[in-house]
């Protein structure tokens, strides 16, 4: 068996090389083999195979969400319309409490824009085009710091004067966004922007650049930056997509949650995986994850990792005991609290 390991060179998405690596890192599911064939592999081959399975699960396996569909439609319309507007260009806010998958959704949107641009303009990279810019802001970040990040993303070797004004920074940032034909500007952790000054900078970017701004953060419309004062002007120029828990008491929520669990169940990269165990226990998984997709994904990742970590295992079946061990560990090692017990889990038929 020949397994090509995934090699990643960059730790962050806030550089052009790092972002493009993140967007391209979609390793395929490794070839499915029997457990006896897996056991016959050499130690180094098993290690590579396990790493490939882990990479597929963490980087590639995703489930469709209503928020993803909605955001994609809104963003596509704005990217087409904004270059034809002369002011008050529209943006998008992706907002939710902590650990709801906001950044993951933004990454999917960025990948969609990048891939669409590459299909239309195959030589875009060689031509110096940068359809997506990604910045992350830290606590109490200023508009000046935000503009500096945009400039360094697009011109990493530039040296900025220490006494440069915000207006000069804005003009440089807008010019670079135009020269590199940027369509999407993602501002992650946008809740860290403090006061009215960053909001006025974002408003100016929307006025002066045709790039569509996507703000990603925690409860954005209730924070200092966008929940009051000048920030409301930015909020009113943005469509809001909020990520919420799934309520399985509704027919729609129940169908969506069961669909997510079934997708994970069908695609677990385990040897001789027998489908059904996760699907049978969708209600317990909902209780453990509190209806949050990001927590469900973490449970699935931990489940596979825990099985692969069993050096003396003789199979890779998902059992009640293995699943409960992960759920029990979840409440002991994270802030996730649930009351699921082993007796709440059922074996697959």
TrEMBL record:
InterPro entries: P-loop_NTPase, TniB. It holds the Pfam family TniB. This is AAA+ ATPase domain-containing protein. It comes from Microbacterium murale. SUPFAM superfamilies: P-loop containing nucleoside triphosphate hydrolases.
